């Protein structure tokens, strides 16, 4: 194939410090291989606290951010890259920080007319002492992804999940508690502000947890989702509206729930650094639209650089003066 990134130096950020490190390593491996097939000189950077020093030494043309979770997805790394005046993929500082904070993003989305679940933030010890909401409900960290630390409290549960007050809990003092919405798990990728399609995710375990997301055969992806056309169009419209309301750019993925019995559709969250693994949803949706994995990576990279150049950052191969 042609090598449209020939001569360009891409720093690929992967790994990192969050609980989603292992997923990031896989995303980074896949994206790095694609970048090399596209002709780029790729330097794989396991992003640690010395990231600024490493990138100052490397002087890459652009950074491909394949990090997931805390620090890599919440605006912190984005702030480092802004300070270094380096173009980078995916959303900027504010959009990343907003999307990662479930409580704040829900407020922004609701104000923009996006239907979101009810509920709110609760101290984890209060939430563990007694039901703060009539079951069924969902308990999850306010700022984690990949279904890390998520618990579903079903009808008839005698007590809330005690794991949220265990010494191993590292996800903050407040937890997000929302009503549990039965039905289908849907996902919509948004690329350049436009929704691609809707995927219906059918987890083998009955819950779309970490293993269902990233394990081999953990879930079945049906795309386009076999749901009423008006619901499919509404899901895509909500994802586009959420992407814009949070100020996202590049590629995002919105997660939704659809109660097909009561015809209720809500948007749960927006992922600004969606997975790029062999089982990930965004590459599948892009492929359905005729964009294979390498061309998806190419578009993400070129989009990042175009925005950087528009902001006064030097062209590929040049050093900012």
From TrEMBL:
Keyword Nucleotide-binding: yes
HAMAP family: Dala_Dala_lig
Protein's cellular compartments: Cytoplasm
Primary localisation category: cytoplasm
Protein species of origin: Phenylobacterium ferrooxidans
Protein name: D-alanine--D-alanine ligase
Name of the coding gene: ddl
Reaction catalyzed: 2 D-alanine + ATP = D-alanyl-D-alanine + ADP + phosphate + H(+)
An annotated Gene Ontology molecular function: ligase activity
Upper lineage: Bacteria, Pseudomonadati, Pseudomonadota, Alphaproteobacteria, Caulobacterales
